[in-house]
Amino acid sequence: MDLGLKNKIAFVAASSQGLGKAVALELAQEGANLIICGRNKESLGKAKDEIQRISSEEVLALDGDLSIAAEREQLIKKTLQVHTHIDILITNSGGPPTGKFEDFKENDWDKAYKDMLVSAVGLVNGFLPGMKQQRWGRIIAITSQAVKQPVNNLVLSNSVRASVAGLMRTLANELAVYNITVNNVMPGYTETERLKKLIETSPSFESAKAEIPLGRFGRPEEFAAAVTFLASERASFITGVSLAVDGGWIKGMF
Question: Residue 94 gets which letter from DSSP?
Fold first, then answer.
């Protein structure tokens, strides 16, 4: 199936590792031009080399912290200096620390808010004008299964990622007139460094496998395939959805 992604320009946030990198790799395999970003220059460089091996186009790698306004604005500015616009925006952020409500202070909530919601709002603000001008775009948020079914010991993620999903659902209504689709993809337990760290800090996460009907953790490439489809021409009539890629972990009907 031709997804119609060849030569599309995609900005993938937090893509030096984990699910962000998996999505960038999948988009590159479909022929998209990539802008990747991350805080760690070394990890970012390795990700660029890995993506470059499967892409005929130059990969633009930008280091910076998307939760800091000045750095985020520089990333957007540098992207638009190379590309006049982007076609696909994937918002993403690393997961906040584990813990219960009383474990966190106000500054912990502020950081989670800036990492997950403020960074997404800032990226949409920066890249939306170009999408509206060409009357085509894809905005996809990577959140978590916790948006639909809260995960124990992840109060920060449960709370703030839900606000990102609310933002995306609202944007889907507002931007449809410009032929811009907006969706949210909710990864379940997936074999990433993030999951390994969760299991190390809280062994109860290892038992989560038993709660998944498919009986295993997901693979990053499986999640990336879902995101890439939503970014494609083939998904032109899908907007405003929150798609779970969780092996059936979420038990709700809707």
Answer: P
Instruction: For residue 30, give the nearest of 240, 227, 243 by alpha carbon.
Output: 227
Phi/psi for 243 (5° steps) reads -95, 120
Helix (H) or strand (E) holding 1: none
Residue 164 CB contacts under 8 Å (≥ 6 apart), including other chains: 91, 116, 117, 120, 141, 143, 147, 184
Would you write out the chain's pLDDT as a tens digit for each of its 254 residues? 789 999 999 999 999 999 999 999 999 999 999 999 999 999 999 999 999 999 888 899 999 999 999 999 999 999 999 999 999 999 999 889 989 999 999 999 999 999 999 999 999 999 999 999 999 999 999 999 999 999 988 999 999 999 999 999 999 999 999 999 999 999 999 998 877 777 777 666 667 888 999 999 999 999 999 999 999 999 999 999 999 999 999 998 87
Q: What is the Cα–Cα distance from 84 to 6, expressed in whole angstroms?
A: 17
Tell me the two tokens of residue 8: 């599309």
d(CA 181, CA 164): 15
Domains recognised in the chain with CATH numbers: 9-245 (3.40.50.720)
DSSP 207: G
- Burial of residue 67 (number of CB atoms within 10 Å: 0-12, 13-18, 19+): buried
223: three-class secondary structure by DSSP? helix
